[in-house]
């Protein structure tokens, strides 16, 4: 009996600690290194300037960040929810095009949007010329102007999640409520909006993360936030330990936002029984003044969030196109595209391993631990960059002291550290949709392949990945867009010999050469716009 129990115990241990478990644990450990770096940074203690920061700057960082989160959350919700409701509920002219045009502001990074609007509204700017110099310029370089810029840049996150939810409410729900004498306004406020809250909160969470990650727009407007403070403490004050302390406080703020998000969702049931594809929300035909009103609500964000800044940038581009349109600009474009392309493929590959390896290991703990390795999107790029710089320094010094190996040049002068930082920050962008879509694969399909003697990797690449083709392509394209726009992380970790369109545009603007920043900005916007329009055609979400 004792031998039998021992054999059973050994067999169980082997099942838990198999090669798939070890492979999963290794990937998770590597991806969690930035989190460990934050903890190690805290253990080293605050730097020399921490007392000054705590006394004179910390309260301003906290208050400004809170104002930006609340203001941007309210304004982006108003724009995103109203436009999503109109697109999902009414039939009007050009609706099929407008529902995708509403995503286009995502093509313009917020810092580039800030440059364009300051030039558009400044004294003797484009707006003054249109109004025949009667306005004397509008000063938006304050926190309210920054809220406006961030809102028109980020509302598509709320719009997209709300639109999908409004569309899937179902005609039976509307018919049953309308028979009770409920008007459409009451239906929206009492039924549709509450049912859409989880989707709205999901979109708002992304908005909040982007607000906390913003560096270029806040720096240009002179608004002190956590991210600008982290940069300033590291560069101007040369105090990396204090910058890590600021980063840790910012992580605490993010955790609080997540807790608030979960609290508002509570344990309420938001399930909808009538969500089949043949019972989608019935749109109402409108004409006349109602159609004009709906068109105004839907086109207004597109005009202010895409057309106006793009036209301003195109106007500036014409001033320098002869001097800037050269091989160097082509080099910048190819650098940006190739870096984003190959990094997005790597991230998707790692995401696929994180999805399937825990399943093959049959270890429930691996699935739980995977959640820790995909939290990078919740951490601003400046935080990740600073902590990786600090951790890399410790790593290099350790190998130099113990093994006499000079590995610093391979870490700091190459792309390895930057690509790893991208991997940590954006892994959840690929992991979440891929993991969700694997649930649609019937387990009998891979099991049949295993019964035929095929290996797990053969089944993955020949059977399961083809079934996930749509999700893989869409995730790769979204990653490509995020990587093309990313600024704080790239600014901190990029090798000295690497330049991108985003970095070059920021450097021009930082040197007060705003008009010269326009051409690389326009090229960046056109590349991202092309991807967004391709996604709109490729997307499996139907325009009901």
SSE series: HHHHHEHHHHHHHHHEHHHHHHHHHHHH
Q: Given the C-alpha coordinates, what overall shape results? A: globular
Q: How far is the first residue's CA from the last residue's CA?
A: 65 Å
In round numbers, the mean pLDDT is: 82
Instruction: Bin the helical content.
Output: over 70%
Given the structure, what is the number of helices?
Answer: 26
Estimated radius of gyration:
25 Å
Q: If strands are numbered along the chain, what order do they take across the biggest sheet? A: 1-2
Major sheet size, sense and barrel closure? 2 strands, parallel
- Would you identify the regions where 5 or more consecutive residues have pLDDT less than 50? 273-279, 540-544
Number of strands: 2
Strand content: under 5%
Helix/strand class: mainly alpha
């Amino acid at each position: 009996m004792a031998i039998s129990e021992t054999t059973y115990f050994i067999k169980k241990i082997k099942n838990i600690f198999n090669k798939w478990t070890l492979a999963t644990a290794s990937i998770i450990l590597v991806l969690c290194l930035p989190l460990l770096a934050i903890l190690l940074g805290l253990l080293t203690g605050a730097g020399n300037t921490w007392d000054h920061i705590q006394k004179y700057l910390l309260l301003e960082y906290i208050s400004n960040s809170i104002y930006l989160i609340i203001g941007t959350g309210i304004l982006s919700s108003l724009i995103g929810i109203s436009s999503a409701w109109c697109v999902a509920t009414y039939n009007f002219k050009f609706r099929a095009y407008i529902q995708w045009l509403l995503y286009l502001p995502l093509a313009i990074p917020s810092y580039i949007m800030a440059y364009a609007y300051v030039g558009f509204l400044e004294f003797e700017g484009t707006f003054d010329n249109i109004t025949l110099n009667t306005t004397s310029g509008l000063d938006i370089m304050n926190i309210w102007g920054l809220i406006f810029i961030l809102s028109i840049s980020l509302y598509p996150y709320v719009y997209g999640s709300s639109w999908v939810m409004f569309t899937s409410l179902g005609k039976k729900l509307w018919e049953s409520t309308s028979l009770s004498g409920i008007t459409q306004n009451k239906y929206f406020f009492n039924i549709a909006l509450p049912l859409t809250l989880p989707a709205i909160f999901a979109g708002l969470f992304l908005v909040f993360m982007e607000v906390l990650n913003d560096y270029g727009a806040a720096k240009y407007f002179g608004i002190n936030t956590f991210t600008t403070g982290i940069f300033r403490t590291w560069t101007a004050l040369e105090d990396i330990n204090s910058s890590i302390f600021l980063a840790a406080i910012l992580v605490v703020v993010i955790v609080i936002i997540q807790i608030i998000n979960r609290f508002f969702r509570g344990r309420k049931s938001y399930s909808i029984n009538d969500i089949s594809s043949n019972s989608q929300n019935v749109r109402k035909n409108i004409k006349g003044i109602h159609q004009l009103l709906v068109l105004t609500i839907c086109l207004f964000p597109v005009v202010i969030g895409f057309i106006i800044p793009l036209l301003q940038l195109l106007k500036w581009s014409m001033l320098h196109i002869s001097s800037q349109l050269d091989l160097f600009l082509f080099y910048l474009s190819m650098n940006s595209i190739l870096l984003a392309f190959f990094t997005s493929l790597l991230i998707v590959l790692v995401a696929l391993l994180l999805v399937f390896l825990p399943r093959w290991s049959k270890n429930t703990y691996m699935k739980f631990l995977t959640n820790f390795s995909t939290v990078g999107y919740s951490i601003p790029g400046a935080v990740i960059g600073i902590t990786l710089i600090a951790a890399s320094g410790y790593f290099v010094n350790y190998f130099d002291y113990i093994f006499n190996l000079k590995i610093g040049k391979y870490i700091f002068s190459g792309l390895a550290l930057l690509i790893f930082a991208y991997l940590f920050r954006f892994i959840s962008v690929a992991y979440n949709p891929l993991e969700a879509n694997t649930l649609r694969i019937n387990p009998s399909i891979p099991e049949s392949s295993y019964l035929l003697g095929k290996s797990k990797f053969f089944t993955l690449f020949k059977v399961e990945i083809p079934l996930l083709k749509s999700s893989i392509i869409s995730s790769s394209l979204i990653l490509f867009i995020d990587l093309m726009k990313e600024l704080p992380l790239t600014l901190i970790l990029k090798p000295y010999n690497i330049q991108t369109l985003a970095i070059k545009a920021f450097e021009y603007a930082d040197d007060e050469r705003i008009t010269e920043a326009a051409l690389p900005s326009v090229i960046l916007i056109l590349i991202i716009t092309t991807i967004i329009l391709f996604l709109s055609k490729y997307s499996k979400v139907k325009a009901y």
